[in-house]
Amino acid sequence: MKTQSTVTVGNEYKARRSRVNRAVHSLIAKFVIMVLVFFAVPALLYQEFRQADLDRQNIVLTAVREQGRLMAESLRPTLERADPSSLLELPEEIERIATKGNGIKVLFRPVGEEGVQGVFFVASEPRLSPDELRKERQALVEQGVFDNLTASCLIERPMAIRHLRPSGVEELLTSMTAIQTDAGCWAVIATQSAQVFLGSSIGQPYWKTLEVQIASAIYLGMAFILAILVFTVWRDLSRFRDLARGIREGRIGKSSFMVGNKVPELEPVAYEFDRMTHTLRESSDSIRRAAEDNAHAFKTPLAIIRQALEPLNKTVEPENKRAQRALQVVEEALDRLENLVSTARHLEHTSAELLDPPRENIGLSALLLRMLEAYNVSFSEQGVILQSSIDHEISVLAGEDMLETILENIIDNALEVSPRGTTVTVELINGKKTAELAVRDRGPGVPESELERIFERYVSYRPRKSNQDLDETASSNNHMGIGLWIVRRNVEAIGGYVRAENRQDGGLSIIVSLPQNTD
Question: What is the 8-class DSSP label of residue 470?
């Protein structure tokens, strides 16, 4: 019987792959957003603070350089004197002009001298010994301070160079002012104690400043704490998920979320889950009871009707064709009603098992071997060859009735569509964590576009048999298009999945994967 399904769910195998893909894509998207936020926000803030720091630097350096220019102008009269004896007063004059925290370095390039070697270090405040002067000169050469002085004397160069004195004290070179005289070119370099600019970015990259380093340490610390919190939440949710899966699959002794939960924040959720589980179990019991009550209520009047037909069959004359046909129609209707009652009862039991599936350690290998042995007669009568390959010691957590229903429907389908002389292969493979069951036939197969739909309710692609060919003892489920639908529901109820594949050389394969009981 074929009907158009309102919703196409797809088999569990592809559904799981789809869920995994969605989860991976969601995690990647969230990770990309987190990375963008993690790097973009600090970058934007860094640029803003750096610009503010540059503006602050310009204001401070402008004032410091103006002070350096004034000190150079104070030395100009002394440096412009033609009397060489005035140079003896230069150290005292520099000491008088220099203020606390400020320093002065005086360089001289005589007329006719060129290159770095023609520049002499004349005086300094704080004062330096001759050996320290040589080291200081070499350091200034390496920093390129002499470069402009060797090319021209017409310079007034602002600077922001951090310089280490021979004594190990750091200072900042803030400006260099050139003074041209008849004897040559003088250069007055103003310095400032680095203690004044301690923690600032003057003379160094902004990221090296103390405030940026502290802010970076705080930000990284917060990011680390956030990562720990995210990991903790993920771990707790994973544990709760494992608890839910264990309760659903019956792998753990605890049947309560409140008992098994170890995360205080999830206690309200665990409480609601326990209430939901209790409701589902009560619903399952109610459905089972209703199925039995309904079946009994229908079968009693049907049995009475069938008993009442027996004397009628005896009293109606064989020549009365019309009466004989009426009795036959009534009996056929009774057969259909009994099949419908049986099917409805079976479906309701299946629905109840989905809500609260039984969880027992069932030896799947032994169960399958017993069932195949019982099927030998059916296969022989229909001229179909049964081949099997069964791995031993495979167990699953399920109900024996559920497993029997799964196996019966799949094997019955394969037997019914197989032409005489063909082979049906049944394989059970130990997949370590899963048990892989495959039933392969040589029937007509199913169109590729319909492989998912065969697991939907009331969908069947097998040719219909006439009433004369229909054995009353055959399972009516298969002929109503609900056999594979029940298979999928039962398989999913115990944590497995089922799919169908067309064989390349003709026929169909039904493949079931069930989680093994490894305890």
Answer: -
Q: Tell me, what's the pLDDT at 483?
A: 83
Q: Where in the chain is the domain with CATH 3.30.450?
A: 61-207
**CATH number at 280-355:** 1.10.287
Domain 61-207 in this protein, CATH class: alpha beta
Position of tokens 């529901």? 489
39 — phi, psi (to 5°)? -100, -35
Per residue in 43-76, pLDDT tens?
888 787 777 777 777 776 677 777 777 888 888 8
Domain with CATH 3.30.565.10 in the chain: 360-515
Is residue 168 classed as helix, strand or coil in its secondary structure?
coil
Identify the residue whose tokens are 């409140």.
258
Q: Which of 79-93, 171-185, 318-332 has the lowest mean pLDDT?
A: 79-93
How far is it, in rounded angstroms, from Cα 406 to Cα 312? 42
Cα dist from 70 to 98, 188, 302, 339, 356, whole Å: 11, 11, 121, 113, 93
pTM for the model stands at 0.48
Residue range(s) in the chain whose domain bears CATH number 1.10.287: 280-355
Q: What does the alpha-carbon distance between residue 214 and residue 346 come to, in Å, rounded to a whole number?
A: 71
Supply 71's token pair. 């000190």
Q: 360-515 adopts what CATH topology?
A: Heat Shock Protein 90 (3.30.565)
Spell out a b/e string for 293-320, using b for 16 or more CB atoms within 10 Å of the CB, else e: eebeebeeebeeeeeeeeeeeeeeeeee
CB proximity list for 317: less than 8 A, separation 6 or greater: 323
End-to-end CA distance of the chain: 43
Question: Angle at Cα 269 formed by Cα 263 and Cα 271, nearest 5°?
Answer: 100
Short-list 60, 56, 92, CA closest to 175: 60
* Edge-to-edge strand list for the sheet holding 184-193: 120-125, 102-110, 184-193, 170-180, 156-164
CB 194 within 8 A of CB 237: no
